[in-house]
Amino acid sequence: MKTFLFLIFMLNYSQNIFSQTKTSIDTIYKQDFEDFSLRLVRDDSDTEKTEFRTLYIDKKSGEATKIFVSTLKKDSNWATSKYLGEGVYHTYNIIKGFHLDNKLLVFHSFWGFVSAVSFDLTTKTHKTYYIGLYPHTGAFGYLAHSMGSKEYKGIFYFHIDAGQQYGNKANILGYFNAKTNEMYDYIPDNTLGKCISDINKDFETLKEDKETSLFIKKLLIRLKLAPDNVAISYLFRFTYQNFTYFFYVKDNSSVEILRHDSEKKEWFVGGYNASPSLTSEKP
User: Fold this and answer.
1) pLDDT value at position 13?
2) Burial class of residue 24, CB neighbours in 10 A (0-12, 13-18, 19+)
3) What is the Cα 174 distance to its own chain's centre?
């Protein structure tokens, strides 16, 4: 009986291995735009390493251009992870791509890092930005992410919550200027900013952008952070853990961040400064 069960196990094991290796190139991510497509493919054809290629594909010519490539050495961990469906085999993906002016901006999450690639559609050159880290621990490595964004006067503002599905994640705030090809991270200061806790207004009841803009304006005036005639325009919000973040425009110029702690019922204004993202440029 034991021999019979062992043979069944080996047969199922062999069938699984065969089904996973019969295709050497797999498409992990696909996103279509009007004139081109974005692809992430994993090439397992090499015996020593696997290559992850982020591709720009011209719809007219069908020509594919590599805009980002990452490799991973094949070892015993790779083979086991591939069979079990965990670990390094599943820890590389695209969060989302955006077409901004003459740029294709692509956000990646992989092996404890969050990065972005700006691909110039005219010169066919790219620039890589390293914008976040998260501890890559635990047996399972499936990725999970969400993203909020808004474009205002040519500047692309974003928030990313990305990392392991069963582990830690990175909480990233930033913005990208497509004209100058510069990206900035919002880095938290040593303090949470100016705090106020006796506001009874529940922001979840604010149904329109105008209502949210007016609420933020009244809050800033009460905190004596703005004059009575300040102009406030709400952009977008997102939630990370117990905080809700509000991006808003002050006096039609600067974009600032307001935070609400749902556990302590406190509001925080400020507490962030913008810093250029680490970069590398390649043709």
Assistant:
1) 38
2) exposed
3) 10
pLDDT, tens digit, 9 for 90 and up, residues 199-231: 655 666 777 788 889 988 988 888 788 899 999
For residue 183, give both structure tokens: 């990206």
- DSSP assignments along 231-251, one per residue: -EEEEEEEEETTEEEEEEEET
Residue 98 parent element (H or E) = strand 92-100
Q: Cα–Cα distance between 107 and 95 in angstroms, integer? A: 5
More confident residue, 22 or 281: 281
What's the rounded Cα separation, in Å, for the pair 248 and 257? 6
- Other CB atoms within a 10 A radius of the CB of residue 5 amount to 9
Instruction: Tell me the H-state helices in the chain.
Output: 2-21, 76-84, 209-222
- How does the average pLDDT of the chain come out, rounded? 82
